[in-house]
Write a structure and sequence with these properties.
By secondary structure, the chain is α+β, with helices and mostly antiparallel strands. Among the domains are: 142 residues, no CATH class; 82 residues, Ubiquitin-like (UB roll); 90 residues, Roll (Ubiquitin-like (UB roll)). It has 15 helices and 29 strands. It is globular, with a radius of gyration of 33 Å. The two termini are 34 Å apart. It is found in: Membrane.
Length: 773
């Protein structure tokens, strides 16, 4: 037991002995069985014989050759093989490493845990803490309870500086507000390490190149024991060979472009904005390179500016590596930047099988990149894709049709904002990794029912701040969409959907012109998804469509038979992963959005609607098939009698609310398990009606929307292959708002295999790459 002032998670990580891991806290420890399953086949004598045989084999090969490179290669391979055997001899075979041996109680480990608790509490300012332990044995199972009594904490009463260097002293006083040590706050040992780190970085950002943390000392006086107060003396000692710490000023900056020497040319030298460039031939714009160099001649040395220069030069996607060092010989302080260019041309091919909402089908991707295309560090990218996929017929769910898709996209990326900005402004903006990307593309879909093509053009500004905030502003997104209906039956199907109130589907097949401005913001402060610590993620976007029609008349588009749209669309996606321990995490997500059309018919471009259901949404429903609201996707003439629903049709809507919580646990090896609960739905702004009556309610209303939230649960496994995570999930409906009120709880109708839309609810199996959120 620990008081609220102590982080119990920190204490949980200090146990010298822990019980065997259980699956989802159930009284099951599958890893023990896995360990002993592997132990039955574990033979150390056999492993030692194999190890000696491998070593002898490589030794003989090494003796049989005099080639230096071959000997080095054989020695390296021998070392890798030997390390593999040593790992198995020390930790067991692969199956044993996936599992864990049974945890046998050890009283010495209890004392070790108590000592660790004492030391941790002392480091948190509880100098008079006590820790006790009590063991209870029930049928050979030992339960150990630790009782922690931290006592009263000691607090910092005063902080004094003992710094003989007046310049350093003034700098620390000026930045005292950022100190981790505050009067009146509890003594925390870790804060002294953080303060030492802060002072070291502060001085290195103000010219003190050769400053080291070893010069920083703290003296702690606890003479006020009766009052539980601590006096702190911060000491910064002078270097042994000088009477003060030296500030370094940059005498010159050299930029070395170490490309292979073409045609045996001599090195050339140029100077631009006080940076000395050396190169074989001029291939890069010194103006653009200079914008990313923040180490300036005659300025004081700054560690932050050095790292920023290295980072922003690497962001150009032009160099294999960027190294920066400082030469202090000869009484000068010279900054040297070394780079090695990447290949100017780059090709990649990808062949695979695509599985989305239909049946598997092959695809082929071709990617081409040309770097520095105009010698201003611009990059040109070209992507082409072709694929074939089996999809269910929209008008006849029984049929399976072949869908052929092809697309080509070209983009040109500039390493600055393409805008009439002054050179001074462009130089300041370079710290934020600015990019301007112009993209154009064409996509084509050919199905037996229809053919559809889309041409697009966009111009986007991207920038970032502090490595965790990313911004994107698309000032122009223009698309022209054309569709041609092939089968008359499909046109009849679209007409029927119009009668059922689902006009969004038929609108998506009308020739149309879509224009919009999109701004998005992404916040990722903790490297979201890392396994070591809890992390957060936020993405928001605001999009307005049809702004161009505030300046021009849309009538010429109408005369050409093109529909146009005016709308606004908002979306917020929030996620959090809480690391409970190294094997168990909880992931949570909220995703919400709203769209509003200013058109007379209140329609949106089909791609701008919101959808719910699928492997990255509410997993108990098929992709894009949940909702809207409690509206029934009716197939039969008497749905109340036989309960048959048509889940073949996507359900677009203007309002989205969904949330998920998932518990993930590492099982063994590269396999992890998960259980989850998803909840959410989509709603329309205008009620969707059938010709005769309302089949449920699709319109959002504050007094009932919470009753129309679909709920699903399920479980899954994740295969972590290091280069990708393959995810298999089984989603099970719990609460279906499309059912009649007395039948909405459908968990008791569970059926692992069966047709969609029957009274017996089938389990929805999802396959995905990566985690759902």
């Amino acid at each position: 037991m620990a008081p609220k002032s102590i982080n119990s998670d920190d204490l949980n990580n200090l146990y010298a002995q822990e019980p065997n891991r259980k699956f989802l806290n159930l009284p099951i420890a599958p890893l023990v069985g896995i360990y002993y399953l592997g132990e039955r086949r574990y033979d150390t004598a056999k492993l030692n014989r194999k190890k000696k045989a491998v070593e002898l084999k490589f030794d003989n090969k090494i003796k049989a050759t005099n080639r230096v490179r071959k000997i080095a290669n054989l020695q390296f391979r021998k070392q890798k093989k030997t390390e593999k055997f040593n790992n198995r001899l020390e930790n067991g075979n692969t199956i044993m490493q996936w599992g864990e041996p049974v945890a046998v109680f050890d009283s010495l480990k209890v004392e070790e845990s108590k000592s660790k608790f004492n030391a941790y509490l002392f480091s948190q300012g509880y100098f008079t803490n006590t820790v006790s332990a009590r063991s209870i044995t029930i049928q050979k199972v030992v339960n150990v309870t630790y009782r922690v009594n931290p006592g009263e904490p000691y607090k910092i009463d005063s902080i004094h500086y003992q710094i003989s260097d007046s310049t350093v002293n003034a700098l620390l006083v000026k930045n005292n507000g950022a100190s981790y040590l505050k009067r009146g706050e509890r003594y925390i040992d870790d804060n002294f390490s953080k303060e030492r780190e802060r002072i070291d970085l502060l001085l290195k950002d103000n010219g003190y190149y050769d400053f080291s943390r070893q010069y920083i000392e703290f003296e702690i006086d606890t003479s006020y024991l009766s009052n539980r107060k601590v006096s702190v003396v911060l000491i910064i000692r002078d270097p042994a060979y000088r009477v003060h710490h030296k500030q370094f000023f940059v005498d010159s900056v050299n930029f070395n472009i170490n490309a292979p020497n073409p045609l045996n040319r001599k090195r050339q030298y140029s100077k631009y904005r006080n940076v000395n460039y050396t190169y074989w031939q001029k291939e890069y714009s010194f103006k653009i390179l200079g914008q990313r160099v923040f180490v300036n001649q005659n300025n004081t040395y700054s560690r932050n500016n050095t790292l920023n220069t290295q980072r922003q030069l690497a962001n150009l996607d032009a160099f294999k590596f960027v190294n920066i060092n400082y030469d202090t010989s000869g009484g000068l302080f010279i900054a040297n930047i070394f780079t090695s260019p990447l290949d100017r041309y780059e090709w990649s091919n990808e062949i695979g099988v695509n599985v989305t909402q239909g049946y598997p089908g092959p695809f082929y991707n071709l990617n081409f990149k040309k770097r520095n295309i105009f010698r201003g560090l611009e990059n040109f990218d070209l992507n082409a894709r072709i694929g074939i996929e089996g999809v269910a017929s929209t008008s006849n769910p029984i049929k399976v049709l072949a869908s052929q898709e092809a697309s080509i996209n070209a983009s040109l990326t500039f390493p600055q904002f393409i805008w009439p900005l002054s050179e001074k402004t462009q130089n300041k903006a370079a710290r934020f990794n600015p990019k301007t990307r112009i993209t154009t593309g064409f996509a084509y879909t050919d199905r037996p029912e229809y053919r559809r093509s889309a041409s697009n053009l966009s111009a986007t500004y991207n920038w970032q701040n502090k490595q965790n905030s990313y911004y994107s502003l698309s000032i122009a997104n223009l698309s022209i969409i054309n569709s041609k209906i092939i089968l008359p039956e499909f046109q009849e199907f679209l007409d029927l959907q119009d009668q059922l109130g689902n006009r969004s589907l038929s609108n998506s097949f009308k020739p149309s012109f879509v224009s919009s401005i999109l701004f998005s913001f992404t916040w990722n402060p903790d490297n979201y998804g890392n396994a070591e610590r809890s992390s957060n993620f936020l993405r928001t976007s605001v999009e307005t469509g049809g702004n161009i029609f505030n300046l021009i008349d849309p009538q010429p588009l109408v005369d050409q038979g093109l529909a146009y749209f005016k709308y606004v669309r908002l979306n917020v996606d929030m996620r959090r992963i809480t690391v409970l321990n190294k094997h168990l995490v909880v992931a949570k997500r909220f995703n919400g959005g709203m769209a509003y059309s200013f058109n007379k018919d209140k329609s949106l471009p089909y791609e701008k609607f919101f959808f719910a259901g699928g492997s990255n949404s509410i997993r108990a429903w098929r992709p894009r098939r949940l909702g809207p609201g409690s509206f029934k996707p009716v197939l039969s003439a008497d749905p109340d009698k036989d309960g048959l629903f048509n889940y073949q049709i996507e359900q677009p809507a203007e309002i989205l609310l969904e949330g998920s919580i998932e518990l993930r646990q590492k099982l063994f090896g590269f396999i992890s398990g998960a259980v989850f609960v998803d909840a959410g739905n989509v709603w329309t702004r205008v009620e969707r009606k059938t010709p005769d009556e309302i089949q449920g309610t699709s319109k959002f209303a504050f007094d009932r929307f919470y009753k129309e939230i679909g709920v699903g649960t399920g479980f899954g496994v994740r295969f972590d292959f290091s280069f990708l995570i393959l995810r298999l999930d089984a989603g099970i409906k719990v609460y279906d708002p499309a059912r009649d009120k007395v039948e909405r709880f459908v968990l008791d109708n569970l059926k692992f295999f069966g047709p969609f839309g029957t009274n017996r609810e089938p389990v929805i199996y999802n396959i995905g790459i990566g985690y759902p959120f």
